[in-house]
Q: What sequence folds into this?
């Protein structure tokens, strides 16, 4: 899991404001990196925040199409403060589909690349989807401390997701509730994508006693390195969302996680994967303030 800003006034409204990037000339958008963080708060921007911003940028660039998938590679940390520039390189733009490579930069340094596919949805020829896992509902799950006004997080069968003492199978089920749910399709998709990077590393660590994300940036270096999200139309919901995480492999300093996002009623809204780094903290890294470490 990677940290979010911990300001007492951190709200869903402020998060959505970060997602809503603004045009800055042809095929270029500018987004805020974050709201002011204190010296003792995480200075590294959540990678999936930039992923969410790229989804909104692509939707604004292709207003007659629907963003269907995004593959993000995180190559350099983005810091809270300077704005983020999103440059859209249109590879193909037709009547039915469009593809673009979006480069996210900060202070003239490239930080992330994102490949986006968009299309015009059509009527079904066939349809099926992965069923929602048969797990306890949000009322029976444990509240998770991720402070943000307008969002609730509850995790099935786990009391403290960060604790090295929470040992179990390499799977985590998290219920999320947002109030209000965005009415704009691009913002709704951005919000779904944002949480896909939060619990993958915790999922990979869960089977291993003595290791947990409470140690991240202290004794181990952890960070999502890639995230891919596919949206299954239509993306509409009210009430709770269930995020399923399954770590299928971890080793050689990396882990792989796959997941799904269902509504409480059982509709599959999105699928996602993540490659994440889990490595020993190098001696040279200990000279960097904890708030700025990977």
A:
């Amino acid at each position: 899991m990677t940290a979010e800003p911990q300001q007492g006034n951190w709200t869903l409204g402020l998060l959505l404001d970060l997602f809503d990037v603004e045009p800055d000339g042809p095929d270029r958008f500018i987004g805020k990196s974050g709201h002011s963080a204190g010296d003792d708060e995480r200075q590294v921007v959540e990678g999936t925040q930039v992923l969410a911003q790229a989804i909104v940028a692509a939707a604004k660039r292709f207003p007659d199409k629907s963003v269907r998938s995004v593959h993000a590679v995180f190559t350099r940390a983005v810091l809270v403060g300077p704005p983020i520039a999103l440059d859209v390189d249109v590879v193909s733009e037709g009547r039915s589909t469009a593809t673009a490579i979006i480069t996210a930069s900060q202070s003239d340094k490239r930080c992330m690349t994102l490949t986006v596919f968009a299309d015009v949805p059509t009527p079904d020829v066939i349809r099926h989807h992965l069923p929602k896992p048969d797990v306890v509902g949000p009322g029976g799950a444990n509240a998770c401390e991720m402070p943000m006004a307008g969002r609730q997080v509850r995790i099935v069968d786990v009391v403290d997701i960060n604790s090295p003492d929470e040992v179990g199978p390499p799977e985590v089920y998290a219920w999320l509730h947002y109030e209000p749910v965005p009415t704009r399709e691009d913002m709704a998709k951005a919000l779904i994508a944002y949480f896909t990077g939060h619990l993958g590393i915790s999922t990979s660590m869960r089977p291993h006693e003595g290791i947990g994300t409470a140690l991240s940036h202290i004794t181990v270096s952890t960070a999502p390195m890639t995230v891919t999200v596919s949206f299954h139309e239509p993306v509409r919901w009210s009430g709770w969302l269930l995020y399923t995480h399954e770590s299928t492999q971890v080793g050689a300093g990396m882990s792989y996680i796959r997941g799904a996002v269902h509504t409480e009623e059982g509709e599959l809204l999105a699928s996602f994967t993540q490659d994440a780094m889990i490595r020993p903290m190098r001696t040279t890294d200990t000279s960097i303030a904890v708030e700025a470490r990977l």
